[in-house]
Write a structure and sequence with these properties.
The chain has helices spanning 4-29, 36-60, 69-92, 98-109, 113-125, 127-167, 199-211, 215-232, 238-248, 251-264, 273-298, 303-313, 319-328, 332-360; strands at residues 177-183, 189-197. The protein is mainly alpha-helical and 361 residues long. It has a single domain, classed as Na+/H+ antiporter like fold. Strands 1-2 form a two-stranded antiparallel ribbon.
């Protein structure tokens, strides 16, 4: 049974994040310490230095041989359900779009489990539940954040090649793009514009970008080390561990600081408005847990295992998703609001989930 003392422990873990957020916000809004260009540089440092080390550090300490693969299977099923629904929405609905499908996937699936989820489920169910949430965090870093990075690079490369082709398509050369005639203001078919880069050209660009991005292989390197270390029972030398930790420990704090900088440059704290805020909260706390419930029931999870699987899916938004959204220029205002509001409202909502699922069990 969760008590007030347990809730206090979760609050203690969350408040320092808001301190970093407030310092970032004040640095721009009140004290004018950083220019917009410097704020972008700080976010890039987090994206390409702090987070790769953070991901590598927590991944290499997991035990791949002790993972609960049934729960991981439920997580994979839930994510695939969301991907299929969003793909169908983008393809079939007049309101659907590729860009909003990417953002919706982030809102539905990516959680801040290490900061909020792990300590909370530890107080609710015990150490085994905390270990389970950490395992799912490792899978998130390896599979789903890498997938997010891939589609963001795919979008960026597609936009870049389309622009290049459009500016150089005076003749009928561009074999890398589909071309279509368009009408001028008088209705004459006189211009040709690039509409879509060729598939293999796009893939080449994306894979080259991913190869240069440390986030794309930090988790792979970490889990590889974990397999080797746990198989032959040896530890990383202290000098290497210290070198990794000194950068890893900057990850979460600098990410929240960067989010504060982003908020400080906006006119309003809730930059995306009330309707998009409600949309993000619905995806985070309703759609995500519902998909996880389907996946968990599909693989036969019952009792406390089912409850933990659903609760961890309702944990607030991943800070990493905001960093990537800002770096790639895709709905960063929506993701920042989801992180901030998510952490404010998550505690009562997660406790409510805990009691409701307890009664159902």
């Amino acid at each position: 049974m969760i008590a007030w003392a347990d809730i206090y422990k979760v609050v203690v873990a969350m408040v320092p994040l808001y301190v970093a957020l407030g310092l970032g916000y004040g640095s721009v809004r009140w004290w004018r310490i950083f220019t917009p260009e410097q704020c972008e540089a700080i976010n890039r440092m987090v994206a390409y230095f702090s987070f790769p080390f953070f991901t590598f550090e927590f991944t290499l300490h997991t035990d791949p041989f002790a993972m609960n693969y049934r729960v991981i299977a439920a997580d994979v099923i839930s994510k695939l359900i969301i991907v299929l629904v969003l793909a169908a929405w983008a393809k079939c609905s007049s309101k659907g779009s590729y860009c909003w499908s990417i953002t919706s996937f982030s809102l539905c699936t990516l959680t801040n489990s290490l900061v909020v989820g792990a300590p909370l489920v530890n107080q609710m169910y015990g150490r085994w539940a905390q270990d389970l949430v950490v395992q799912l965090s490792v899978v998130q870093a390896i599979m789903w954040l890498t997938l997010l990075l891939f589609v963001l690079e795919l979008r960026k490369a597609g936009m870049g090649e389309a622009v290049v082709a459009a500016t150089s398509s005076g003749g009928g050369g561009g074999g890398s793009v589909d071309q279509q005639p368009v009408k001028d203001v008088e209705g004459n078919m006189t211009e040709v514009v690039a509409s879509r880069p060729a598939f293999w050209s796009l893939m080449k660009t994306v894979w080259l970008k991913l190869a240069l991005n440390p986030n794309s292989y930090a988790s792979i390197a970490g889990i590889t080390w974990a397999f080797v270390a746990n198989r032959w029972h040896f530890e990383m030398p202290n000098i290497m561990e210290g070198s990794i930790l000194i950068m890893s420990k900057t990850g979460t704090g600098l990410a929240m600081f960067s989010m504060g900088l982003f908020m400080g440059m906006k006119e309003k704290i809730v930059a995306c408005g009330p309707s998009l805020t409600a949309f993000g909260m619905a995806l985070k706390f309703v759609a995500g847990p519902a998909a996880m419930a389907i996946g968990a029931i599909t693989v036969g999870l019952r009792g406390d295992l089912l409850s933990v699987a659903i609760i961890q899916a309702a944990v607030p938004q991943s800070i990493t998703s905001f960093i990537f959204a800002r770096e790639y220029g895709l709905h960063a205002d929506v993701l920042s609001t989801a992180v901030i509001f998510g952490m404010l409202v998550s505690l009562p909502l997660l406790v409510a989930y805990y009691f409701v699922l307890g009664f159902m069990n």
